[in-house]
Write a structure and sequence with these properties.
Length: 236
Amino acid sequence: MPPDIRSWWEVPSIAHFCSLFRTAFGLTDFEIEDLEDALLLDGSKEDSYNRFLADLHASLLKGLFTGNKDINADNFEPYLSEVLKIRWQDELGKPNPLSESPYRQLTTQQKVEILHDLCDFRLDVGDVPDLLKGLDADSLRVEPLGTDASGNVYWYFYGTRLYKETPEENSEKKGPQWMLVCSTATEWEELAESFKKSKNRDEKMLYQTLSEDFVPEITKMIDTKVSTVYSHYLFV
C-alpha cells in the first residue's frame, strides 16, 4: 500500500517553495498533485514522472554549485550525493542514503526528506538576497489560518488545499499529525459552514476567514483549473 503522502507536511511545503521561488530559481511550474504522483511513481516504469523529479532536483542543485551549470536530469545524482555528504553526513552525522543506493531505490519518505532539505539548502546560498529583491516579504511567511476549539491548527500554503495539524497532546501518535482537509470547493464550503454557528471565539474567527477570504477565491481557482483541464482534453 503506497504511503499517504497527503498527510506529510513536507510535501505542501516543497510545493509552496517551488511555486513561490519558481522564477527566481528557474523551477518548473507544476501542481502539487504532479509532485505527489512523481514521488509515488518514481522508480516505476513511468519515465515522465522520473524525469519530473530529476529536472526539479537538477534545477535546485544548480544554485548550490557556483559556476556549474552542467547539472541536468541525467547527471544530478552525484551532485546530490555530494551535497548530502556535506550537509547530512559531515555536518549532522546523518547517513547519506545515496552512498548505498541509487536515487530510484530510495523510499518515498527519503525522497521527500531530501527534496525538502534541498529547498532549505537553496535558501542558504549567497545569491538569494539579490534574486528575491522583488518578492513581498509577507509572501515569504506561511502562517496558520486559525484554530478550532480542539486546538487543531489550519494551514494554507498555496493552491486549493487546506491542511489540519493536530497537536501531539490531542493525537494518539507521537508528534503532531497532519491531514488534508480540503481540496474541493464543496469541502471548503462545508468546513466553513461547520464553524458558522460556533460560539467559540477561535472558531468564529476561523469561519470569518474561511468564508470571506478563502472560499470565494478558492472556488474561482478550482473553476479555472477545471476549465483548463477540460480545454486541454478538447484539443488533444
